[in-house]
Each structure stands twice: as structure tokens, then as C-alpha cells.
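Subgroup meeting minutes
Present: P.N., E.W., G.H.
Scribe: E.W.

1. P.N. recapped why we're keeping a running log of single-chain structure predictions: easier to compare across weeks, and new members can see raw inputs and outputs side by side.
2. G.H. added today's entry (285 aa).
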Amino acid sequence: MCRFSPTLLCQLLLGTLLLGPARAADTVLWYITELQPLHISDGPMAEQGMLDVMLSKVIMPGLPQFKHRVITASVSRSFRDMSDRTDVCHPSTQMTPERSKRYLFSAPTFRYLPVGLIVRSDSVGALAAYSNRKGQVVLAQYLKQPGNQLGVVSNRAYGEALDTLLQQPNVTSSSASTATTNLQRMLLGGRITATLGYSFETAWFELQNPQHEGKLSWLPLQEQPESMLGRVSCSRSEQGQLLIKQLDQLLEQAGTRERLQEIYEQWLDPASRDKIRKIRQGKSR
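Output recorded in log:
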């Protein structure tokens, strides 16, 4: 009938047949490690972790041309699959020269404080003996004192500058799935004198244990940069390249980076929040 009645409807139907079916949206697999409060997979705060919210409130809605799935995976599996597959991304990865050869990275998404030294608040004054003029603790000097017992998470990469210092007899490791929380409990119990972690990890601990609010403090380390930049990483593939390109365009839109930064800073204690804001102000001058 269309052959003898060239109406607009017939023309549209013929055009659809000639062009074929529309290409299905590419699916992106977002791998996130179960490291609270970055990713919270269960409980009353499920899907409200820092990276959970960055994805659900900013990145996913800003990239509607893709389908999105979130997968909880270990760090090693995340990097392995990002190398072996073409559709894997991670919402926040530290970019290094070696990783840049294997994965694709976006423009910076937010600025954050690096791993620091977490101690009991009532022992902060004693740390002056191991600190430089900027108030940064010199971890190498701290570990020279046998009485200082440092707790770390087994198989966790703290960065080359710190990892080389951790082969000491006064370094204790925990391999439990709740290792970070266990170490902070050991710290409060006097079994260790300090642990390594991000400032938001103390905020999460206090949120889960309000009776210990204000009992832990985060201190910067001389061996670490003043701040670091988060970036999305993806498989080095055509799909990964497309997502990174469109994400970078999203990041250039007014308010995108500000919203991601705000989500990060919501997880900081007041002192850490003030510190990162002062650093950002200095970087923008």
C-alpha cells in the first residue's frame, strides 16, 4: 500500500526499514570497591557512599546516552577487568604514569586530601616531635621510634612513598574485610599508636560509633602531596574513549565539578573541610 500512497507515514516507515534498527546504548560497568564510606552496598545507608552519590546524582544522569551498571569488586579485579574488557570504568582512580599506559583517564573530577596519619586526639601534641615546620608528620622519623606502633591494611597500596616505609617491625597489618574499622578500634584501645587512612574514614567511623566522636584526628604526612586529584578511569577501548570524551564535556559544564567536590567534602570533619577549601583557594589564584 505504501508503494501507491506516498504519505508522510509511509515515508517514515520506509526510512526506518532502510536505516535498520537504532544502535542500542552502550553499557558501562562501574566497578567500585567495598571501602566505606566510598561505597556502601548494604545497611540503612546503602548506595549513599561518596562514590555511590557521585555516580547516581552527577555522572550517570549527565551521561544518559549510556546504560550504567554498578558492580562491587576488589581493587585487583577492577584493574584486571579494566584491562581485559572494553566496558569497565572506575569513578575515582589515582592517575600514575604506569596506569596511564594501560587505562584512559578523564580530566580531574574533584580535589581530595591524601592518606594521612590517624591518631588519638589526646596524643596530637606528642606528634610535634616528628613534625616539620608545616605541621606535617614525617613518617620516616615516626617509625624510627620502636614505641610507635603503626597499623595498616594488608595488601592496600598507600602509594610508593609510603609503601617503602612500611617494612618495619613496628608496623602491624590487618587483613579483615573491616580492617579500617578494626584498626581504629585498636587505636582507641591503645594496641597501636597510629594508623594510615583518609580523613573521611575517621568521619565514617565516628558516624558509626558516635560515642567516639572527636577522639580521632587526621594529620598530614610530609611524604604525601598536599592534595590529590580524583579522575574517572576506563578501559582503553573505543567505548572507553567515547565515555571519557563525553564525561570531560560534562565536567566543563557549570556546576558539575562543584557538585562532585561538595559530595566529597560532606564526608570530612570541619578541620579537614577547612583545609581542603584553603588548598583549593590557593590553587585557583
